[in-house]
Amino acid sequence: MTYCVGLCLKDGLVFLSDTRTNAGVDQIGTFRKMTLFQKDNDRFFTLMSAGNLAITQAVKEILLQGQLLNGINLWTAENTHDAAVVVGDAIKQVYDRDHEALEKAGIDFNCNLIFGGQVKNERPRLFNIYSAGNFIEATPETCYFQIGESKYGKPILDRVLSFTTPLNLATKCALISMDSTLNSNISVGLPLDLLVYERDSLKACKLVTLDESNPYFQMIHQLWGERLRSAFNSIDEPSWTGANKDKSISAPAKKMGAVPINHPPAKTKAVKSKAKSKIVKTTKAAKAIKTAKPIKKAAAKAKA
Fold first, then answer.
1. What is the pTM of this model?
2. Which of 25, 38, 102, 120 could form a disulfide with 107 if both were Cys (CB 3.0 to 4.6 A apart)?
C-alpha cells in the first residue's frame, strides 16, 4: 500500500509520499510514488500515485514520453487544468489497453493520483485524479488530498491545516501526518519523498528524500509521541458523581435521552412458571401410577 498527501496553500504546494509497496506481508518492495515534470521558467508539475503499481507506472511512462493525447501533453498544455486532463486521458488509454486482461485475471483497475503544480502566469493548483480519468480540484476550503492509507494521518490535517497556513508549518503538519501513518500501518514505509513548492518559482526549490537517519524526522517522531502522551496525561479524568460540573461526564444529553435498558417481559415469567407447574404435576401423576400398579397386583394375589 502507500500514503501520499498533497497540500495546496496560499504560498505554494507541499507533496509528501512514502516508497513502500507490498503484495502480501512477504513481498515488500521500494518504489518511488513521486514523479516531477519541469520545463524551465514555464511550468512545474508533481505526480504522486497509489494503487496497482503496473497501472500507475504505465500511466507515468505515457506522460514522461510526451505522448500527445487529444493533441496535447504535459509540456504543451495551456494550464494546469488541461494538464490534469492529459493525465486523465493517459489513465483511460491504459484502461482501454489492459482492462480486459485484468478482468480475466480477477484484478481491479485501481489507480489513484494526486497531480499538481503551476503553469506560468497562473496560480498553483492541485487535483485528485481517479481510476476513470475524472478528477476534482482542491479549493481554499478543502486544501489537501490524500491517497492510499489516509485515515491515520487525517486528524492532524483537519485540526491544523488551512489555506493560509505557512509552507514551513504545513510541511511539519504533513510530516506528522506521515509519522502517524507509519506508526499504525506496516504497509507504509520509509524512505519518504518531500517537495515544498514555492509559488511562482516554477522549479523544485526544496526537495529531499528522508529516511530513519534524517535528524528532523527523528525529532518529529520522538517529540510527537512524547507530546501526545503529555497532552493526554494533562487532561482530567471524567467525573461520574457530578461533583465538578466542568468534568462531569454524567450530564444528560440535550437532544437524546439515555440508552434504554431492556428487561424480560412479565408475561414471559408467568408462562414459564405455569409450564413448570404443569411439568411437576405430570411428573407426580406418573409416579403415582407407577406405584399404584404393584398395589393392585398384590391385592389380586391375596384374593386368589
1. 0.85
2. 102
